[in-house]
Amino acid sequence: MASEKKLVKSITSRDDNFAQWYTDVVREAELCDYSSVKGCLNYLPNGYAIWELIQADLDARFKATGVENVYLPMLIPEELLEKEADHVEGFAPEVAWVTHGGMERLQERFCIRPTSETLFCDLWSKTVQSYRDLPKVWNQWNSVLRWEKTTRPFLRSREFLWQEGHTIHATYEEAEERTIQMLNVYEDCYRETLAIPFVSGRKAENEKFAGAQDTYTIEALMHDGKALQSATSHFFGSGFADAFNIKYVDKDNQLKSVYETSWGWSTRSIGALIMVHGDDSGLVLPPHVAPVECRVIPIAQHKEGVLDRADALLKELKDAGYRVKIDDSDKSPGWKFSEQEMLGIPTRIEIGPKDIENNQVVVVRRDTREKIVVALDEIVVKLREILETIQQDMYKRAEQFLQEHIDTATTLPELIEKFKENRGFIKACWCGDEECEGEVKYSTGGASTRCLIEDEEWVSDKCIYCGKPAKYMAYWGKSY
Question: Going by CATH, does the domain composed of 14-277 fall within 3.30.930.10?
Answer without folding.
Answer: yes
